[in-house]
Every structure is written in structure tokens, then in C-alpha cells.
Amino acid sequence: MKTSLSIAVAQLNFTVGDLSANADRIIDALQQARAQGADLLLTPELALSGYPPEDLLLRPDFYRACAEQMRRIVDASEGICVVVGHPEERAGAYYNAATVIRDRHTLATYHKHLLPNYEVFDEQRYFTPGAVPCVFELNGTRIGVNICEDVWDTGPSLLAQAAGAEMLLSLNASPFHLGKQAQRHEVLRARVAETRLPVLYCNMVGGQDELVFDGASFALDRDGALRYQAPVFDEALDIIGFAHGGWQSGRTVESASVESDVYRALTAGVRDYLGKNRFPGAIIGLSGGIDSALTLAVAVDALGADRVRAVMMPSPYTAQMSLDDSREMVRRLGVRYDEIPIEPAMQVFAGLLEPQFAGLPADTTEENLQSRIRGMILMALSNKTGSIVLTTGNKSEMATGYATLYGDMAGGFAVLKDIYKTLVYRLSDWRNSVSPVIPQNIIDRPPSAELKPDQKDQDSLPPYEVLDAIIEAYMERDESPRQIIAAGYPEADVRRTVGMLKRNEYKRRQSPVGIRVTPRGFGRDWRYPITSRYQDEY
């Protein structure tokens, strides 16, 4: 009797709700794995439905459609064992499930025990928790199954061990954020230490709305040693052997820099948002500043130059260097480029509003009109061509409201929504280290909205290194203003920053969805009231 195992890891990119195509991908993977001599194919969590299906999981017909596609996978499983992640309805209850299939028969189904309800997760809204371990035998090895959150706490893996498991398979849909892979390794090593079971962790890859899944599947031996590490943000169908109670070493991809990982997360998010929603291309309003320059670079790397269009809309306050730098960047990237001066539209609006504004001094109203004219032009081009407008605002601006509603916030997808301004500079430097696509002058010059003469961001905001640190402490770590001030940040800057953050929630609720790369972004995991009189602790 064969006592060793060959396991294929299906680190694949699935699309929420595209059930037949997702089933096709699983069937294709099992056929490839079988042809390469694999005994078992392991898929990610909810591979069949894509993750997260959100309120599709409230529809009984969705479960019926999933069951129909599961039957196709069962029929295709001759000569191989497959562990498939899928939603399941059973006796009126709904489960996050993993079904073990072999030779056109269902051997067992495991129901996820621990349902996360924090950060971007909301599984208690949809699923009933399971309570029974799942252990099956293949080639003389007893194999336990867990799903994602089950390995982030003690309990389910110990139940698998008690049921006789000799190894653990973990199906995952674990989204990327900064530092996530180190957390995964730490958590799984804790489970290995508790159970003395080697573990194989299979994760999804690709973008789904604001979430990006990085893959990075891996295997740990019973001593916690890393024996296999898949690449990040790339699909993979890797095969790893198991014999004599341990993993036979598979490929191990070296970790990259923070900037590399974040940049790849952005390109994956843009590529899949446009691709899965069938947008033909992207339109970006260039300003000559660093945010729009980085957004353009990401878009071209994600989509190709032929699917990206850049539009420069100069006003009387636009510096010549902004025009020169924008022209140079589009030359380097080879994208379509148009210049549409907005001064004629500014004059029309000034004339229309002159009777209403009579006797009132000029202020941010006139500045915002310029931004809204640009937003209207971009959206008109989007409507006419079908391409989506990528907005260019960063997390620092979204936090403080340093953006114009219906102006530079107008668009369909916010590439830098979770990227602090200080990280924008780091990403730009990193991208130029690969090939110099962003003119150095854009990186070096002080940032400016160019809505009035000699305007600089720092006229209205604290220095970005201070601003970003305050936002991160307040928003991502839930520190009080008192704690932030005690850490050494100027009280005036803390009061100003926190005040702006709270006042501008109404703007953020109207902003487009954007890619999440930090442990807490302005999206699924930020749910603060617009109307609130809570006073922070100072």
C-alpha cells in the first residue's frame, strides 16, 4: 500500500458569483494535478462561490446553484481526491463548508467552526458554526480539515488531532494587509506547537472589490519549519509531497519588500476590479502631482498602456512644470494623453454665479469649482467610452477631507484610498527603482492642489509624517488623542487632525470603493457614525 502523499495546492483567482467558471477552474486544476500524479487537490475557502459572497449568501437559490456546480466537480473527480471550499445548505441551516471528494463520491463534509466577525469579516451574519471535526484517510494517512479562522484560535485543530489526524489541511480566503504573512506564520506555528501536526495552508489570490488576496500558501512541519512557500499575488498549482510524517520540501519563494508587496496589491486590485467588472479601460486625471503619477503607473502596470488614458486639465494656476512633467510621464509610459484647459468653463461658471456671490469674498468655493469641472469632464469621457475613472486621492486626504466631493473624488475606483501620503512617496521611489517612469521632479517638488497661486498642501495640513502617524494611531490602533499626545505628537496637530477626520465621514461615505492594504481601511472595517457628538479623551 502507498504510504506517501502528493498534494496539489490550488492557489487560484476565483470570481464571486461566477459559479460555473469557478467550477471549471477547479476541474481544470484537478485534471492538471491528476496528470502530474497528485493524490489530492486542495482548494481555498469558498473557492466555488468566490470570497466574500456577502448577501448572495442570504439567497436560497444561490445555495442551489452552488450544489449544482458541486455535482459537476464530483463527476470529474475520477482518480483523485479533492477538497473543495463552498457554501452549503443543509436542513435549513447554512454553512461555510469544505467537502472531501474522491473517485466521484463524497467522503465527508466539514463545517467551519469559528466564524469571524471583525475587521472585514461578517460571517456570523450568514453561517451557522459547525462543531464536529473532519478526519479522512488517504494512502494510509489520516488527514484533518480546518477552514481559515479555525486555525487562528485553539479548538478546531485540537479536535482534529483528537480524532486521529496526522496532518492538517487549512482552506483559506485570507485578505492581504501589511504584515499579514508574518501573522499567518506566527499563528500557524502556534497551532503546530499545540497539536504537533504538520499543516498545509492554501490561500486564495486576486482582487475582490476592496479586498486583495495575496495567496502566499505555505506548509509547516511538526517542528514549525517552513517547508513550502508559494509566491504572492500569483496563481500557482504547486505539488508538495508528504511522507514519514513530514513534508518533502517544495519550492520556497523569498519574501519581498513592503513596497513591492503593496505595489503588487494595488496592481492586482486594479486588474481584477476592471477585469471582473468588464470595464474596457481606465481614465486618469493627471495633475502633475505625485498621487496621480503613482496611480497612472499602477494602472499601466496592471492593464497595459493600451487600456489607459490620461487627461490633463490645466487651469490658470497650473504650473508649467506640472504640464511638462505630465507630458514626460505619458511619453515614458506610452499612454493616450489629452489636454483639456478648464479656464473657459471656469469663466462660464463665474458668470453664472456672479449674481449669487455678489459682495462675498473668494474662498474655497472657487477652488472647488475647478475640481468639480475636472470631475465632470472625466465622468463625461467615462460615460462616452465605457472606461472607468480611477480617482487619485490617498488615505491622508480621505482622512482629513482634503479632497473635493463631486470633484477629484468623482470616479469609480480609488486606487490609493488606503495609501498614506508618506507611503505614496515610498511606492513611487520603489517603482522608479524598477524602471524610471515617474519624473523625479514630481517626487521632489512640494505637493500642491494648484487651485490658487503658490498653494502648498502644508498650508492646510500638518507635515505628512506627523499627520500620517496621528491618523494611523487614532484609526488603526484606536488610540485616544490623549495617548497620541503622550507619545510626543503636538497637541495642536492632534486636535486638528482628529477633528478633520471626524468631520469628514460624510465625504468618505460618498467616495468610491478602494483597495485595502492596511489593517484598517476606510471601507468594510471602518463603520463610524456620520452624526455623532462623542467627545474624545484629551
Describe the structure.
With 538 residues, the chain is α/β, with parallel strands linked by helices. The protein has 16 helices and 20 strands. The protein has helices at 19-35, 60-75, 156-162, 180-195, 258-276, 290-303, 320-333, 343-357, 364-385, 395-400, 421-434, 440-444, 464-476, 481-486, 491-503, 505-508; strands spanning 5-11, 40-42, 81-90, 93-102, 105-111, 135-138, 141-147, 167-172, 199-203, 205-208, 211-214, 218-220, 226-229, 236-243, 246-248, 282-286, 308-312, 336-339, 388-391, 413-414. The strands form four sheets. A seven-stranded mixed β-sheet has the order 5-4-3-2-1-14-15, with helices on one face. A six-stranded mixed β-sheet has the order 6-7-8-9-12-13, covered by helices on one side. α5 crosses α6, α6 crosses α11 and α13 (464-476) packs across α15 (491-503). The relative contact order is 0.09. The model has no long low-confidence stretch (mean pLDDT 94).
